[in-house]
Every structure is written in C-alpha cells, then in structure tokens.
Specification:
Number of strands: 0
Distance between the termini: 28 Å
Mean pLDDT: 84
C-alpha cells in the first residue's frame, strides 16, 4: 500500500516538473515571438481600424471554441470521451503546445485529463490524429473552393480540374481509402490501431463541420484584412482560402513552432495578388499576432474558469 502511494507521489512530482518545464519552454518561445514581431510592426507604416479588428477576433474566438467542441465530438465517436467541460479545458490548454517545435506537445498536454478518467492514451492519440486529418481536409476544401474566386485569369482554363479535385476530395474521404494507407503507416511506425474507426457517413459529417468552421475563421481573416486594407466582399472566399492553405503548410511544417514563418510566406504570396506586397507582409505579421493573442486569451479564460469552479466546489 505504501509502495503504491510512493509511486503515485513520484508520478505526481514528475508531472509537476514536466508542467513547469513545458510552461517555461512556451514562455521562451512566446517572448521571442512577440519581441520579433512587435519590433517588425513598429517599423511598418499602417493603420488599423480597431472596431473591425475586434470583430475579426470574435470570429477567431468562435473558431477555436468550436474546434474544441469538435475534438470532444471525435472522442465521443471513438468512445474515448470525458466530460465536455474537462475536454474543452484540456483542448484549450493544449494550444500552448503549438508554440514549441513538434506537434507532440499539443497531444501530450491533453493526456493528463484523459488519463485521470481512465481513457487509454492510445485512443486519445488516434483521436488527435483524426482531428489533424479533419483540420487539413477542412482547410484543403476551403482552398479548393477559393480557386473558383481566384483573382487571376491563369486558372480560368483549369476550372474543370478544380471541379474534379473537389469530386476527388469527397471520394478520398472514405475511411476505407484512408485506412488503406494507414495500414502501411502502422507497419512503418510499428504501432497498432491508428486507423480511423468511422463510417463514411460519420467522416462526411465530421469533415463537413470542420469545413464550416474554416469558413468562420476564413471570414474572420477577411475581416482582419479589411481592418487594414479594404477588399471587396467578392474576395472573401479567396482570402479565406489563402489562410486555409497557409494553415495546411504550417501544420505540415512540424519542426517550426505553430508553422512560424511558413504560414506568413504563403499569406504574402497569396495576398500579393490582390494588394501591394508591402501590405501583404503587414497583414501576414499582424495575423500571426491576431491568432496568438486570441489563443492566449482563451487559455487564460479556461484557466480562470477552472480555478473558479474548483474554488466553488471547495
């Protein structure tokens, strides 16, 4: 009995040390990030319409909270769920992990909440994998649709190709096709049970929800852009699609914290088609701060709500 209590005490102590190291690493990367970006912004000549900027941030808040809800929904489908409030808090806390190179820290930050409830960590890992696939697919679909609104005559001769890509997109959503490739991933990684446990209908529903959420954040990014440079409403989907593409590349760039630098490069290339390049650079830098500040506010909010709830229970 004493031995098991000592083991639990040691485990709790190790977890506390890991939390301190994790938060210290996040703080280092965030300080470096803000120092670099604020220095760059001070050197730029531009104005922000603050009410419009605030409206765009509301869209980002909605996007992130909805993503946390989708994460919970995925765990419910895979029978790996915990209470919604706990899941929401675990997801928001895990956002801090994206500011450290390597996506593994986002996953690791969710483990404690699920381990306390007896959920196998293997199932949490599979759900995390599914979430990232759906995120990529949602962003990819938004980008494909945005090609129809591409502000350039280059793509006019390739409309049929875009239509075929959209059709191929929905065909490839079939879990049987995805799992066919995941079998080889299992062999290479020497892991089991990393295949998607969904039906085709469930997969369509989940990805559809992610697509709708990408429309929300794409609209938020368009409004953010309009707070500094006015774009016609007809270019809303184009701006959202470029933001989605930048997110895809950022997610795939696993060795950069939160896709830092990679996403901005894609935004500059895309936005330069509809505005001066100097303005595109400004918006790409501000958009990074826009997302980061919104995420930190949400993390702080989740922390305060949890502490308030714990105090009330006492």
């Amino acid at each position: 009995m004493a031995s098991s209590e000592n083991k639990k005490s040691r485990k709790d102590q190790i977890l506390r040390i890991c939390k301190v190291v994790f938060l210290a690493a996040v703080a280092v990367f965030l300080v470096r990030f803000f120092t670099t970006n604020i220095t760059q912004i001070r050197e730029l000549d531009f104005k922000i319409n603050w009410p419009v900027f605030a409206a765009s941030m509301i869209f980002y808040f909605i996007y992130k909270v909805t993503l946390a809800s989708f994460w919970h929904y995925i765990t419910v489908l895979d029978h790996a769920n915990i209470r919604y409030g706990e899941a929401l808090t675990a997801y928001l806390y895990s956002i801090l992990g994206k500011y450290i190179p390597g996506k593994v820290f986002m996953l690791a930050a969710r483990f404690p909440a699920y381990e306390r409830e007896g959920v196998p960590l293997r199932k949490v890992t599979v759900c995390f994998f599914i979430e990232n696939i759906c995120t990529l697919l949602g962003a990819a679909f938004l980008f494909l649709i945005s090609l129809f609104f591409f502000p350039n005559s280059i793509l006019e001769d390739y409309r049929i190709v875009t239509v075929l890509l959209v059709v191929a997109f929905f065909i490839c959503l079939n879990p049987k096709i995805i799992n066919f490739f995941l079998k080889y991933v299992e062999k290479v990684a020497k892991k089991k049970d990393i295949q998607i446990p969904f039906t085709y209908g469930q997969m369509l529903k989940v990805v559809g929800l992610f697509i709708l959420n990408w429309l929300i954040v794409g609209t938020g990014f368009y409004i953010l852009t309009c707070s500094m440079y006015r774009l016609p409403v007809s270019e809303l989907l184009f701006a959202g699609g470029i933001y989605g593409l930048s997110a895809i590349i950022g997610i795939l760039a696993i060795f950069t914290p939160s896709g830092l630098g990679v996403r901005e490069g894609i935004l500059v290339l895309g936005l330069s088609l509809v505005m001066p390049k100097e303005m595109a650079v400004i918006i790409s830098i501000v958009s990074r701060l826009w997302a980061t500040v919104a995420e930190l506010i949400l993390v702080l909010g989740a922390f305060l709500v949890k502490k308030f709830s714990e105090a009330r229970r006492r």
